[in-house]
Protein: ZSWIM1/3 RNaseH-like domain-containing protein
Organism: Mytilus coruscus
Amino acid sequence: MRKCKKYFQSAYCDIVFVDATYKLNDFRMPLYVIMIEDSLGQSEVAAICLLNSEERPVLQRLMKCFQKHNPDFSGIKVVMADKDIVERDVFKEAFPDASLLICKFHVLRTFNREITTEKMGISSAQRYVALEIIQKLVHSTSEEDYKANLKLIQTTCPRQILNYIETNWHEIRNEWILGLNYFEGSLMNTTNNGIESFN
């Protein structure tokens, strides 16, 4: 822990990546990895923790422990994670001055998992078209571009796809649309793949 603390205090205080994996033990207990990165793209693991659940009190305890051992945590500008609702709320509480970003890989994977023929009651062709436009939506370069791509979904895709986006994604678009302040403080990172490869 001392070595990780030294790295965090000396050079790594801008962006923190958080991810969990479940494939390392027979009980499927989540292993949380918190990784930090400097402006040269060098990363270090700041914390590893095996949790008995992902319930709010457990994650809050993890964040308190991280803050205790890393007193410079207030310098964190960006936290990148996935879209899990409990996680997001806990991170916002722990780092109120930091921007919360959703890993682009997780964004696209979630759309791919949720927009299916079975869940949406759509054809394979409709799904293919929707996912193609959603790729454009994620890579929108401005609010105007985002609105134009959303309009394209409205006019091209079944209504339930637009409903899904408006209900689950529209209000938090600053956290996943690449052209909407996504790169401010993120050191040009769009994914948690560094942690994925570490896992």
Notes: The longest strand covers residues 43-50. Residues 5-10 have pLDDT under 50 and may be disordered.
